[in-house]
Write a structure and sequence with these properties.
With about 475 residues, the protein is α/β, with parallel strands linked by helices. The chain folds into 3 domains: about 70 residues; about 240 residues, 3-Layer(aba) Sandwich (Aspartate Aminotransferase, domain 2); about 130 residues, Aspartate Aminotransferase, domain 1, CATH 3.90.1150. Helix content is about 45%, strand content about 15%. It is built from 17 helices and 11 strands. A 7-stranded mixed sheet has the order 1-7-6-5-4-2-3, with helices on both faces. Strand 10 and strand 11 form a beta hairpin. Helix 5 packs antiparallel against helix 15, helix 6 packs parallel to helix 15 and helix 16 crosses helix 17. It is globular, with a radius of gyration of 24 Å. The model has no long low-confidence stretch (mean pLDDT about 95).
């Protein structure tokens, strides 16, 4: 493909993409399709072609077909997962980054990209109040952002050289502490690092889904008494289920007392620490040794973009750096290969950096604040409707369940709770398949509830106002069907 053809097809593609993105709000959030029907619609069941196809022919209907058979997290009534719409400037940033194709592993291979990522890290740290001297890097998402910090903590707090001797270097067992509501990344981290998931001490939560601090202290003391080595406590800065925020300041104090690494999983809620009215418990993430945040969540960057931050930048070097003979670079330069597990790294920072420049801190405070305000408004609207029981509201997540009129007086009884769990599970599935809106679920104290999360600059009050009617209408239909079955 020569430059002229690239330019012609590129202009056509941008026009198609702009039209398709603009059309999303008028269509369904998703279509109720089977995997087989999607494969057939996109002609994905054939073998590898022996001969190529002209690029113009491939692109002719590619964008319309992709948009016809996808779920749209950019839809204003997508309330499902913590996946944001892509900022248009980020979409264009990805195009530039792909054209440059920098390998942001070493400075010599990517001087401009490396310096842009370094500034992006400083800006993110500044925005959430973690401090200007923190170090870090961009990774694929929340799982990897948290894992990078976990591996840094493991090296920093083991009493032996765990990088060379491994777990066989000591008979002592490392222990990590986290609430039962922590994301499953911690299981992957302990598994892949060789500690095993039994190294996790799952700490119970209180009625607000926050880590029970008395139980945390008791678990640490118990493990120390049995000869284990506590090394890390993970606080949650906005759980994925309900948006709950642990008592981070108190956890920081416990970690100081016991000389433990304090990590905050802020993949979802961390950026809300930059709001003027952010909860004090969330702002206390500034006390952590490390924090994970996701720009592809509340900075609205196109996937993928996670971010690992550490208070002591050298902690990452101590955890990841090696110096084989084929690496030659100036020590004064930043070489991200030394700060994380990847060698070849894409130019993820550009889309984040461009959006930060375009919106500024004030713009992001406004957009994130709008999402939080809309979620609070949703809880108010739902509470006014007797068909719903609001179970929680924190940050931009509201959880609730549909309760038929004749079941309201018996809420709490075993039979009604069992029926409501089944009803709301079926209701959640039916709402998603309807395409009118998209919610997900959470389980709170044994109750299956619907979960609406707003990380979307397209969502308005009108979209929030529409949700109760959609859920109630479909809920009545599902309830009626269950009674007849």
């Amino acid at each position: 493909m020569d430059a002229a053809e690239f330019k012609r097809l590129g202009h056509q593609l941008i026009d198609q993409l702009a039209e398709a993105m603009a059309s999303v709000p008028a269509g369904p959030v998703m279509r109720n399709e089977s995997p087989t029907s999607v494969r057939r619609a996109l002609d994905l069941e054939g073998p590898l072609p022996e001969h190529g196809t002209d690029a113009a022919t491939i692109f002719k209907d590619l964008t319309p077909r992709l948009f016809e058979h996808s779920l749209f997290n950019a839809h204003p009534r997508f309330f499902g997962y913590i996946t944001a719409p892509p900022a248009p400037i980020g979409v264009l940033g990805d195009l530039i980054a792909s054209g440059l194709n920098a390998n942001v592993g070493s400075w010599i291979l990517s001087p401009a990209a490396t310096e842009i990522e370094a500034q992006t890290i400083r800006w993110i740290s500044e925005f959430i109040g973690f401090g200007p001297k923190a170090g870090g890097l961009l990774v694929s998402g929340g799982n990897m952002a948290n894992m990078v910090c976990f591996w840094a903590a493991r090296v920093a707090k083991a009493k032996w050289n765990i990088r060379t001797a491994g777990l066989e270097g000591s008979e002592e067992r490392l222990r990590v502490y986290t609430s039962v509501d922590t994301h499953t990344w911690i299981q992957k981290a302990t598994d892949l690092s060789g500690l095993g998931t039994d190294a996790i001490r799952w700490i119970e939560t209180d009625e607000h889904q926050r880590m029970n601090l008395a139980a945390l202290r008791e678990a640490i003391a118990e493990d120390r008494g049995s000869g284990d080595v506590p090394f890390m406590v993970i606080g949650t800065g906005g759980s994925v289920g309900t948006g709950a925020i642990d008592a981070l300041e108190e956890i920081a104090q416990i970690c100081r007392e016991h000389e433990l690494w304090f990590h905050v999983d802020g993949a979802y809620g961390g950026f809300a620490a930059g709001l003027p009215d952010a909860p004090a418990s969330l702002r206390a993430l500034r006390l952590a040794d490390s924090v994970a945040v996701d720009p592809h969540k509340w900075l609205y960057a196109p996937l993928e973009a996670g971010c690992s931050l550490v208070r002591d930048p050298e902690a990452l070097t101590r955890a990841f750096a090696y110096h084989p003979a084929y690496f030659h670079w100036e020590e004064s330069a930043t070489n991200f290969v030394e700060l994380g597990p990847q060698n070849s790294r894409s130019f993820r920072a550009l889309k984040v950096w461009l959006a930060l420049r375009q919106a500024g801190a004030a713009g992001y405070r406004r957009m994130i604040g709008d999402d939080v305000a809309l979620s609070r408004y949703m809880a108010e609207v739902l509470r006014k409707n007797p068909a719903f029981e609001v179970t929680s509201q924190s940050l931009s997540i509201t959880t609730f369940r549909y309760v038929p009129e004749d079941r309201r007086s018996s809420v709490g009884t075993e039979a009604t709770e069992r029926y409501l769990n089944e009803l709301n599970a079926d209701l959640n599935d039916r709402i998603q398949k309807s395409g009118e809106a998209f919610v997900s679920n959470a389980v709170i104290r044994g109750r299956y509830v619907l979960r609406a999360c707003i990380v979307n600059f397209h969502t308005t009050r009108a979209d929030v106002d529409a949700l109760p009617e959609i859920v109630a209408r479909i809920g009545r239909a599902v309830d009626s069907e269950k009674r007849r079955s």
